[in-house]
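Hi C.,

You asked whether I'd gotten around to modeling the 319-residue construct. I have! Everything is below, sequence then structure, no commentary in between.
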Amino acid sequence: MAYTGNPSPTETSEQMGAFSGYIRRPTPSASGMTAQIFGENGDDADTILALSLSKYQDAEVFVNIYLVKDSVGKIMKDGDKYPLIASFVGFVRRSMPKKDGMIAQFFAPNGEHSDSISVLSRSDFQDCLVFVDVRGKKAMSDQDKIEQENMQEINLHYADRITKNEKSEFARKEKSFRKMNEILELSDFLSRIEVMTSIGNVEEYKDWLIKTQTCSHLQEKPCLNHSHVIQVPSLIKPFNFMPVCDEHFKDLESEKHIEENSLYYEMKHRLILKHWVWTRFKEKFSYDGKSEPDPSRIIEWAASKNIAKYLPSKYQAII
């Protein structure tokens, strides 16, 4: 978020803005160098846009740029720190809009600070994911504290960011993931109680039912009413809960109704459970929490939970 306190940004040591982005080659001029960092649409582009407000133009700021991931997505952490690749005092310039984001610009006049920006011209820095910390010039007096704060912020909010190249690689592999995952979906792996209890717990399952599932009552046309959960003793424990609306609550509460329609409710329950497990796999094992899960990550997870023996023999990692 952009700093909104003191109206004179140069007279503060507070953080005026922080964002992740990709290094673009700095632009030289007769009087100095201009650093350029591209932030994708979303929070990063919004923060860069906020730094374009008139009150920040020509503000003298202290900028620190940390290398988080290289161009292929490798985390660049060295011990417990991310490398500081540029640190300089410069001036905020208007950001440049792009179709898929914004480019932040910081100008430093000729001298040691423009020399620091020049380092960003290195070929091996291009398209690397970086964390950019922008503060008032007074922040230079306490750089150890700033570094500690920035390491915490990177670890909490930026270390797991997926780079553009990683996204492209995942997209390329997604068809292969889908084909391999069809083997998994056709097996009994997703329906095993060992898998269910390893991927989540009952409270998470119940919460998912309430947020995503409509009423499971047996009828000719599906009931689309908002649902609560009800415990059905005859179904698979400990996940023996079904979504049901107020109108049909008494039916699912009735042992007679459940017994007379046991085949339907058992099958419905298994399908719902399978859907929940697969949703959890997407959340945990895909690059963005909603795409096709990576089989190699599923295999590694299954091995860590001692349930790899239940995987289909033909289910393999995609290289």
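If it helps when you're writing up: The first helix runs from residue 43 to 50.

Thanks,
B.
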